[in-house]
Amino acid sequence: MDVTPAADFEGAEEAEGRTGGCLCGRIRFTTRGPAVFPHTCACEHCQKLGGAPVMWWVGFETVTWTGESEPTWFETFEGEAKRGFCPTCGSRVAAIDRDVPETGINVTALDDTSGTDLVPVHASFRDKAVHWPAPETEDSAAG
Questions:
Q1: Of 7, 9, 25, 78, which has the fewest Cβ atoms less than 10 A away?
Q2: pTM, to two decimals
Q3: How far apart are CA 15 and CA 17, in angstroms?
Q4: What CA–CA distance (Å, rounded) separates 143 from 110?
Q5: Segments in the chain below pLDDT 50
Q6: What is the pLDDT, as a whole number, of residue 80?
Q7: According to DSSP H, which parts of the chain are helical?
Q8: What pLDDT, on a 0 to 100 scale, did the predictor assign at position 16?
Q9: Cα 90 to Cα 75: distance, rounded to the nearest angstrom
Q10: What does R_g of the chain's alpha carbons equal in angstroms?
Q11: Phi, psi dihedrals of residue 47, rounded to the nearest 5°
Q12: Sign of CA dihedral 47, 57, 76, 19
């Protein structure tokens, strides 16, 4: 995998007790510890699993599942990585990678995504990213 965690990147903040979950609310979680290595990923698996050009990930030392169910896990890279999703609503919420000590959380599954410690510091699989920019709107063109 093209991911290198970095626990002490510049701007890391301690964020105790972040919460999040899936769209339908069956899966809920609480994180502990600082946000580690926030990044986007444009690998083929993230594109297909997320239904978008990239997914936005961050690691946490501890993730506690607090809802009525835990994620269902799909092995994306055999023996290397698996991704957790809600079997009811389909939300992608988590990742476990063999060579990464933290549990990955899809940032969009967090209840609050505004922390500066969640700003991506890396783009994995940049060579797989879409080659077109966001379309310009009338509002942005008038700028």
A1: 78
A2: 0.81
A3: 7
A4: 32
A5: 1-15, 140, 143
A6: 93
A7: 44-50, 138-142
A8: 64
A9: 15
A10: 15
A11: -65, -45
A12: negative
